[in-house]
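Lab notes, practical 5.
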Amino acid sequence: MSKEQVEKAVAGYFAGIRDNDKESWLAHFATDGVSHDPVGAPPHEGHEGLSKFFDGMNKMFASVSLVEQDVFIAGNEVAVSWHGEIIGKNGRTVTFAGINTFVIDSAGKIALLRAYWNPRAMIKELNS
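Output from the prediction step:
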């Protein structure tokens, strides 16, 4: 697998969220891909579980934007620090940050995602 394939999968993940394009976002995951977002919560498994996760974001927030800050690639594994901005259905804007780790499979798809961030703090700020 090339570095470009790895970069494409990760960039597509973030672009799909920013563009609110579920189909594009899902296309960057393996059909049996797993997302731990956030780490510690029950995983979202396969395209069906990932699709429900994406739909849940849209029910909770007017928009979600995650922007890559630093991207570190080691073979087929990637760590990304990111900055996020969410606009709630109430019109409030919250900024937050996190780190995602990815494992990319031989087809250039996300096989495993682990997202490290604090959703409780973000939700608390959004609703305050």
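Observations recorded by the TA: The two ends are 46 Å apart (CA to CA). The domain at 3-127 is CATH 3.10.450.50 (Nuclear Transport Factor 2; Chain: A,).
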